[in-house]
Amino acid sequence: MRRMLLLNKTTLSSTIRKKNSAVDNRISSKCLGSLGAIIIVGVCLSIVLADLSNIPKNKVSMKR
């Protein structure tokens, strides 16, 4: 009797819904996501550019 009532948990719709995110087609959500991505890329790019400007200075001091 117990075997007949057991369900495979991986095929339950509740388990599948936990793993999938909902699609949001609103323009405001797309704009906000794009803005967030641009800000993150901008911060990373500014850090890299700040380090690139110091490379020639470090090469001169390492040769001494």
Give a summary of the structure in a few sentences.
The chain has helices at 2-5, 13-19, 27-63.
Give the SSE map.
Layout: H1 2-5, H2 13-19, H3 27-63
Mean pLDDT: 87
> Can you count the beta strands?
0
**String of helices and strands:** HHH
Measured on Cα atoms, how large is the radius of gyration? 26 Å
Distance between the termini: 83 Å
Give the % helix: over 70%
**So what's the overall shape?**
elongated
Q: Number of helical segments?
A: 3
Given helix and strand content, the structural type is mainly alpha
Q: What does the largest sheet look like?
A: none
Strand content: under 5%
Extract low-pLDDT stretches: none
Walkthrough of the structure:
By secondary structure, the chain is mainly alpha-helical. It contains 3 helices and no strands. The protein is elongated. The mean pLDDT is 87.
Label this structure with key terms.
single chain, 64 residues, mainly alpha, 3 helices, 75% helix, elongated
